[in-house]
Amino acid sequence: MNATPSSPPRWANLNTLLGIVCLIAALVFLFYLVPQHIEQAPRLQNPLQSPRWLPTVAGWIILLLSIALVIEGCLRPPQPEEGKGETGQDRAPAWRWLLLLVALASYWLLFEALGAIVAGVLATVLLFLATPVRKPWLYGLAVLLPWLVCLLFIHVLNVPLPSGSLWE
Amino acid sequence: MEGLNEVLTLFLSIDNFIAIGVGVLIGVIVGAIPGLTATMAVALALPFTFSLAPVTAILLLVGIYKGGMYGGSVTAILIHTPGSPASACTLLDGYPLTQQGKAKKALQMALYSSCIADVLSNLALILFASYLAKIALNFGPPEFFWLICFSLTIIISIAGESVIKGLIVACLGIIISCIGMDAVHGTQRLTFDNYNLMDRVSFVPLLIGLFAIPEVLDFYLKKASPHIRAASSGVGLTMKELKASMSSIVRGSLIGVIIGAIPGTGATAAAFISYSDAKRRSPNRANFGKGELDGVAAAESGNNGVAGATLIPLLSLGIPGDVITAIILGAFMIHGLTPGPVLFQENLPVVYALFCGIMISSVVLLAVGHGVIRYFSLIAEIPKAVLLPIVLLFCVYGAFAVNNSVFDIGLMLFFGVVGYLFKITGFATAPFLLGFILGPMFEDNLRRTLLIGRGDPMIFFRGPITWCFIALTLLSLFFALRRYWLERIRTAP
Predict the structure, then answer these.
(1) What does each C-alpha distance from B17 to B31, B198, B358, B365 come to in angstroms?
(2) Which of A83, B57, B429, B492 has the fewest Cβ atoms surrounding its Cβ within 10 A?
(3) What is the model's pLDDT at position A66?
(4) Domain coverage including residue B122
């Protein structure tokens, strides 16, 4: 387990890094977010009834646990398989996650403007292209399915979905 | 004899059987759609019951409720998207089983354990309603407070590889649950003046985001891998496997019955407590979370054990245990019936006819579940490149449907990224969810206890029920930490 000159030091591992990130986040939460963004009640019978009490306790526990995580990371580095997801050797090409990003953005940013059906068709087609799906008839499904699901939501389940402010 | 005739006349109507069948089918389908819950289905069906006979109307709603409880597990097992909060526990082992090509096995285990739990829960309703209702009546805020504390100890057993990481995300879940307007003081907590956050973080977008979206992100951020046809999703559950899980199912059902009889606790806590109990007792506990059939059985039996039991306080005391039973209470009132002791005095034949229908609904659930499993398990064989965009479509529409708000779509995507980060950094998601669910219950009951005790801390130790839960909390903590240390010693280099 001794570090060789070429290998990173024993303490440089995912858990130590996560512990430091959590520690900083907990400090920001406790000393900035709680005082600035949680209003204190004007009158309190008991400090345990304060709106700040539970978030503060949870924040302090995270702070203590993140210190524990840093210590654990230094003393007992995680086994290589625990950090498998971090290697990045199976990462997809950039165009693929770019298409994913555009599809998600179209759902979020264009849902009301394009309407549920068009946004659904656009995102589904983009995601099919990202893989890419090679059977042409499946693209027909990408058009048909959002339309059918939309009808199900609107007419059967009585859930109103936006029809698109651009087309009105 | 005259009473029996009246019960049979009320119950043996073709309308009742159709209502149960249609209700269960609607419940299973709606429960299986991410974002749509059994609560929504019951609420939507309520107006359709106005013209029905009282027994038929209530059986339709009960059928939807029970179907929805099971339906939620289908998507949890197949696509890592819990259809309901309670089925979030089912996916811990259900989804790994699907990944191993054992989707049908997991679905059947979920169905059988749901049905067995449902029958036991119904029997508890019929035989012990008045007795359990008396116990449930003794639950005040201090008892609830300790029950929540006991439930929080489960975090240690579902923390995954690292207990420290599990506890960190559980605290993070508690902090996220605090966002919104403070219920007691009316002050704002971490809303950043955004009115969408005033009414707390919506549960459905969080649930979908945390579990379904990371699967989508994971798939598209990795190199495309060829689809492995999971032909073995057609392999069903064997009698031997069901028998092996029977003790977990029975224990989970009893946990569900007890939790369900207490108004306001809910099926999610029951599912996690049952899962934790099964994991503690199992010789295969190391396999929990990696595709253990016993885990699916325990979670589903805990979850469904609640279904019949929530009707105990409703029928015997007129107190709805959760939102769905509150809607069913509304249906009773619309039809001129008042649940509570008066119902048993004035409308006893109606009560017995309902009991008959509720028992039949378990059999119908089994039949409908069997029928739909063969089609649902085909979902596991659809290539991910086709399936995931469709799942995302349902997720987005479902998240929007909660408040008709695009903000909820953004919230779902945000928690999707959070869930993905959890996934790649080795943080378990289940403790976050448990912290999010139990955090507000913990705070509300702590505050109520302090209010009714006028600041006297002795209120927390006021009776045998509080002592019982304190003992359970301490024992659970002790055994969980002991197991954790033993495991650390065993795996020490």
Answers:
(1) 21, 44, 11, 12
(2) B492
(3) 95
(4) 2-223+234-491
Instruction: Name which of B190, B442, B450 is nearest A46 (Cβ-Cβ).
Output: B450
At B361-418, the pLDDT tens digits run 889 999 998 888 877 777 767 788 888 898 899 889 888 888 888 999 999 999 999 9
Q: Can you give the pLDDT at residue A20?
A: 95
CA B173, CA B179: separation in Å to the nearest integer?
A: 10
Which amino acid is residue B392, in one-letter code?
L
Report which secondary-structure segment, H or E, holds B159: none
Residues sharing a CB contact under 8 Å with residue A66, sequence separation 6 or more, in sequence order:
A18, A19, A20, A21, A22, A23, A25, A26, B168
Interchain contact B443–A (C-beta under 8 A): yes
CA distance A9 to chain B (A): 18
Is residue B20 assigned to a domain?
yes
pLDDT tens-place string over residues B130-149 = 677 777 777 888 988 888 88
Helices (H), A29-135: 34-37, 53-75, 94-109, 111-114, 116-130
pLDDT of residue A89: 59
Tell me the shortest Cα–Cα distance from A100 to chain B, in angstroms.
7
Inform me whether the C-beta atom of residue B221 falls under 8 Å from chain A C-beta atoms.
yes
Smallest CA–CA distance, residue B56 to chain A, in Å, is 21
- Residues in chain B with CB shorter than 8 Å from the CB of A22 are 168
Quick check: B182 contacting A, CB < 8 Å?
yes
Contact present, B216 and B416 (Cβ < 8 Å): yes
Q: In Å, how far from its chain's centre is CA B202?
A: 17
Q: Do A38 and B409 touch (CB under 8 A)?
A: no
Question: For chain A, give me the number of helices (H) and strands (E)?
Answer: 7, 0
Contacts of A41 in chain B (CB under 8 A): 182, 184-185, 187
Whole-prediction pTM: 0.81
B43 touches chain A (CB under 8 A): no
B30/A62: higher pLDDT: A62
Q: What is the mean pLDDT of residues B211-235?
A: 70
Instruction: With beta carbons less than 8 A apart as the criterion, state whether B325 and B314 touch.
Output: yes
Task: Please report, rounded to a whole number, the percentage of residues in chain B having pLDDT higher than 90.
Answer: 16
**Cβ–Cβ contact B1 with A under 8 A:** no
Is B240 an 8 Å CB contact of chain A? no
pLDDT of A1 strictly over 70: no
Number of Cβ within 10 Å of residue B40's Cβ equals 24
Domain total of chain B: 1
Inter-chain contacts counted by CB atoms under 8 A, chains A and B: 181
Name the residue among A48, A66, A146 with its Cβ closest to that of B168.
A66
Strands (E), B160-307: 180-181, 188-189
Please state the separation of Cα B198 from the chain's center in Å. 25
> Which residues in B lie closer than 8 A to residue A86 (C-beta atoms)?
424-425
